[in-house]
Design a protein that fits this description.
It is globular and about 45 Å long. A 5-stranded parallel sheet has the order 4-3-5-6-7, with helices on both faces. Strands 1-2-9-8 form a 4-stranded antiparallel sheet. The protein has a single domain (9-186), classed as 3-Layer(aba) Sandwich (Rossmann fold), CATH 3.40.50.2020. The longest helix has 19 residues, at 20-38. The protein has 3 helices and 9 strands. With 190 residues, it is of the alpha/beta class.
Length: 190
Amino acid sequence: MPAHPHQSVTTDSARVVLNELDISRALTRISHEILERNKGAGDLVLLGIPSRGVPLAHRIAEKISAVEEYDVPVGSLDVTMYRDDLRLKPARALMPTEIPDSGIDGKTVVLVDDVLFSGRTIRAALDAMTEIGRPAAVRLAVLVDRGHRELPIRADFVGKNLPTSLVERVKVTLAGIDDVDAVTIEGSAS
């Protein structure tokens, strides 16, 4: 019997905690919360953090556009060279940073990422933005907040809070990059 679309599904060592419908609903809610907080779509810029934050930013922009009939500028912000753990991890390929033609000066920038964990990626994104411009405000939207912050950073818009242990790994897959939309927890003791 197939699993109910709202249940967690366990496959091998991975447990599905958000499926395609759950992710779509979470992004719809985040989009509405962004609009409410910003009092509309004017002066918004969405910057996705590669790799999965970029398609998430585009999806949020599409949902905002469906409500406001306004095309929110979307870009990407690679933070690799701003990370404080470069010497601790293997080198990774640089991803493009693409800032919309309208820039970010005086705008409300919403950084979009898939998982918020230690907060170090977001700190790196804030550092990277200082070289690009000076936004009026910066907000953070994440699909999943798993806790375990090492820096005083919190998300303004969260799709799902997923308390996890440090031995667990939260994995986000998105159609277009991966085979399917899903959020799984791997390495849990369950």
